[in-house]
Amino acid sequence: MTHYDVLGVTRSADDATIRRAYLELARLLHPDADGGDADAMVVLNEAWAVLGDPEARAGYDAEIGIESRAFASRPASTAFVPYDDTDDEGADDWRYEPDEGDPRTAPHRRVLFAPVVCLALAALVTGIWLVSPIEELVVVAVLLVAGALVGFLVAPIVAMAKASRYEQHR
Q1: Alpha carbon distances (Å) from 71 to 101, 109, 152
Q2: What percentage of the chain exceeds 70 in pLDDT?
Q3: pTM of the prediction?
Q4: How many structural domains is the chain composed of?
Q5: CA gap 149, 145 in Å, rounded
């Protein structure tokens, strides 16, 4: 199977036709697309790397026995950069929006900071216990660690509850 077969184009296809064929297949086969195929995408990228570069295409054509053509429509490039200049009417705009949460649904800073303080206090109490003979400090340190673990579990639950309440009142 030749690279032309992979892209589904004829051997006399121009650069624009090859590029369109690559982009259409890449949209279908990309592993992030629904029903995408990673192995097929690797083969597709190999075909594009050869046929998308005029010098590599001329060498490939010579290798498989096709007469050399002059490919002056696009300059040779060392880096693979697919570029789609078609206007998809904002289809990809969502990819470039910042990923920020709604401040109205975020837990209060005290809820987020409490587990960290508990762990710091547990470390401090453990240090004091190591240098003093007070055995009750072990119990205090264990309780502080347990409180920190509970705090780390409570913070996301509080955030989800606030978000749920916000969505219900929206």
Answers
A1: 50, 61, 61
A2: 78
A3: 0.40
A4: 2
A5: 6
